[in-house]
Amino acid sequence: MRGSFSDHASLLLLGAGLILWFWGTWPLLGKHSYLRKLHALSVADTLGSSLMLLGLLLRIPGQWPLLTLALVGLIVWNTIFGYVLAACSLPAHPSRRTGQEHTP
Amino acid sequence: MRRLLPLLLSTAFRLALWCLLTSDLSRLNLLIGLVVALLLPRARSRPLPVRLLLKAAGRALLAIPQAYLEALRLIVAPGVVELETSEPATDRALPLLVFLDVFRITLTPFTIVLGLEDGGRRYRIHSLLPAAAPEASEP
C-alpha cells in the first residue's frame, strides 16, 4: 500500500513537472520579448525540474545523494545562469559603469 | 565567529558536496574530503553578519512555495504585463548574501534580476505580472 502510494505521488510530481516544462519551453519558439521568455524558462527549468527530481526521489530513494546533488546544482546553476542571461540583455549604460569604481 | 563564518560555511558546503558525490561516510573519505575542501582556492571574504545571513536564508526558503503559487497564477492568467522596478540591495561586498537575494528574486516567476544599478545599491528587476483586465491578452 505504501509502495503504491509513493508510486502515485511520484507519477503526480513527474507529471506536474512535465506540464511546467512544456509551459515554460513552448514560448521559446514564439515572438515574445527576450526577458519574457526568460521568465517562462525559470518556471520550466527550476520549478519543473525540481518537481521531477522530487518525483524521482520517491521512485528511487536509494539514489538520494546524487539526486540531492542534482537539486543543489540546479539551484546554483540556474540562479547564476539566469542572472548572466538577464544581464546580457541590457545595453551597457552609464549607471552600471559607476558601480565598477573600486578603490584598490 | 563572524570572521570564521565564511570559512566554515564554504568548507562545510564543499565537504557536503564531496560526501554526496562519493556517498561514502567512512573516516578516510571524510578526511580526504576535508583536505580537498580546505585546499581548493577561496575568495577573500569579509566577516559575515549572522543575523543578515539568517534573514536572507529565511526569505530565500519562503520564496520556494511562493514561486509555485506565482507559476500557477501566470499559467492561468489571461495576459501579462511587463514592467521594470528596483529593490534596495544588501551589501554587494558579501557575495553569499547577493547570491541568496538573486536566488530569491529569480526563482519566483514574476521577477528576475537584471543587474545592479545606482552604484550597486539597488537591484534592477524585470517583472512579469498577470494582467488584471482580459483585454490585455495577446493571440
General description of the model:
The complex is a heterodimer of chains A (104) and B (139). Chain A has one domain (2-87). Chain A has helices at residues 2-25, 34-59, 64-88, 94-97. Chain A has 104 residues and is mainly alpha-helical. With 139 residues, chain B is α+β, with helices and mostly antiparallel strands. Chain B has two domains: 5-39; 50-131, no CATH class. Chain B is built from four helices and three strands; from the N terminus they run αααβαββ. Chain B has helices at residues 5-22, 27-39, 50-76, 95-107; strands spanning 80-88, 111-117, 122-130. In chain B, helix 1 (5-22) packs across helix 2 (27-39) and helix 3 runs parallel beside helix 4. Chain B is globular, with a radius of gyration of 20 Å. Classes of the chains: A mainly alpha (104), B alpha+beta (139). Chains A and B meet through helix 2 and helix 3 of A and helix 1, helix 3, helix 4, strand 2 and strand 3 of B.
